Amino acid sequence: MSHVTEFLAIWGAILSTFAVAWNLFRDWSDRPKLRVSSTLDRLAQCEDGRIFAVKHNLPIEGATKQVFLVVNVTNVGRRPTLVKSLGGEYKNPVNGKKHFVIVARNLPKMLGEGEYILEFTDELTAAGENVKSLCVWDSSGREWRLPARELKKIKEEARTVLGQ
């Protein structure tokens, strides 16, 4: 009988450990999470009036000559999230200000699971050398940043575009 008791005790410990680990994983993954990406693009318009972005160096008929900083914010989490604003931080303060805000056309916007929003600005200073970070803020005040390597790539592209 003692072997059965030992087996049941071990089995119960394994199952309870698995249950606790599963609950921790579920609670950790069941939260808001935004992914921010950005490109330098020109804008074009579909026949139905919708605006879309095309790579700045592609010769697309009807696309603008002006290059825009396009920011894509995607909800990759499992909870709806309200995206409130878009902006960033300077390395060196400009006019005494350390942060900047990009005037958004479609914010605030509630994003459900898997939904995204595209915002754009013609202010390429948001991709300039003095920019330390580019980010969005949600309704809880949490900051979601553009990854550093993407910001570096955008800055390099901006140098090329502005140099033309």
Would you give an account of this structure?
- With 164 residues, this protein is α+β, with helices and mostly antiparallel strands.
- It folds into two domains: 1-30; 32-163.
- The chain has helices at 2-29, 148-163; strands at residues 34-45, 51-55, 68-75, 81-94, 97-102, 109-111, 116-121, 131-138, 143-145.
- Strands 4, 5, 6, 8 and 9 form a five-stranded antiparallel β-sheet that branches. A four-stranded antiparallel β-sheet has the order 2-1-3-7, with helices on one face.
- The radius of gyration is 23 Å and the shape is elongated.
Explain the layout of strands and helices.
Elements: H1 2-29, E1 34-45, E2 51-55, E3 68-75, E4 81-94, E5 97-102, E6 109-111, E7 116-121, E8 131-138, E9 143-145, H2 148-163
Antiparallel strand pairs: 1-2, 1-3, 3-7, 4-5, 4-6, 4-8, 8-9
Major sheet size, sense and barrel closure: 5 strands, antiparallel
The amount of beta strand, in percent, is 35-45%
Helix content: 25-40%
Number of domains: 2
CA-based gyration radius = 23 Å
What structural category characterises the helix and strand content?
A: alpha+beta
The total strand number stands at 9
Order of helices and strands: HEEEEEEEEEH
- Mean pLDDT over the full residue set: 87
Apparent shape: elongated
What is the CA-CA span between the terminal residues?
84 Å
Secondary structure tally, helices: 2
Which ranges are low-confidence, i.e. pLDDT below 50, for 5 or more consecutive residues?
A: none
